[in-house]
């Protein structure tokens, strides 16, 4: 393999995106730790507050997460009484996630920490670059890279 075609992780789109995601996650987790949440848990609570009860499959799709990964994030939230899992009113076989009053209270407490993380990111990265960054990442999420791969 020549030097020009050598595989370099730093040139891999996936590697760079995942590295950036871990870096940003660490920032948000630093702010949310005193509230007793990780950023993914905060996002789960916020989605349930905004969208209401939903199945784990629906929430996984909404959050662009693997169902089993989401399940691992849901367990401590249920254990701590921040969410409850109940049978669906429309389909007894399905389980729905519900935000509890304790979950709402923790979400409110986490909101200030989340806002501080947002402000910290923007102050270091710049307001325009931050807005452009979010727009670009939303476009990536909206892209259907898997379409046509199985055809």
Quick overview:
With 151 residues, the protein is mainly alpha-helical. It contains six helices and three strands.
Question: How many H/I helical runs?
Answer: 6
Structural shape = globular
Termini separation: 31 Å
In N-to-C order, the SSE pattern is: HHEHHEEHH
Strand order, sheet with most strands: 1-3-2
Low-pLDDT segments? none
**What oligomeric state best describes the polypeptide chains here?**
single chain
- Overall radius of gyration: 18 Å
Average residue pLDDT = 91
Strand content of the residues, in percent? 5-15%
Q: Which structural class do the helices and strands define? A: mainly alpha
* Major pleated sheet: 3 strands, antiparallel
The level of helicity is: 55-70%
Find the count of extended strands (DSSP E, 2+ residues): 3
Architecture overview:
This protein has six helices and three strands. It has a three-stranded antiparallel beta sheet. It is globular and about 55 Å long.
